[in-house]
Zinc finger CHCC-type domain-containing protein
Amino acid sequence: MGVEARLRARERPKRSVEKNECRFNASRPPTARPEPTTSNRPAHPVSDAITMATSQLRAIGVLARSARLSQRAFTTSARQLEAAVSAKTTETSPAPVDESKPVEISQAPNRVGVWSRSQRPRAQAMTGPRFEQTDFSVQPQPKSAIELIHQQPVRWTHDRMVACDGGGGPNGHPKIYINTDKPEISTCNYCGLPYANEHHREHLESLPATSYPLS
């Protein structure tokens, strides 16, 4: 077989297939041809980018409009709230306070009545044996030891030095020595008993007053 015969043999089945397709299409009822859409259209990068940009711009425009509306509503409500607050503050606005001066904080007022079951009324407060010791006007007022010691008479001696032990025993004190060579009444630094020398009696009796009785 030659080359031409081989080509003719290849073209024969193609023609038979085309004839069969034409017969099948003729027997089928005609159908509406679908309109080309974006899905079956050939993709074009420039046109697709433009359509996407326009859709994004539309969405951004809608969001901007809604934001403007919400902002207007917020500003309106904020203005109304500010007006209401300013009206309230002007009605009950306190007097201006000078911050340079120190503010004196006063104590809270005392309660009028009792607030505990075990509490006594205010008129009966600080009374009774529990509080008697705090009232000095009802306490015994004995004379102090200084006043009592100044009632002791002067002990006269002929020596220039005397010893005093406070009487000795548990009520006494350590023995100390007192000089009596000066013309004055010398006292014990422990018990306060007075001592004087007989040579200075006339001088002490001539004084208008003495802190201890001379006899």
Remarks:
- Helices lie at 3-27, 45-91, 145-149, 201-206.
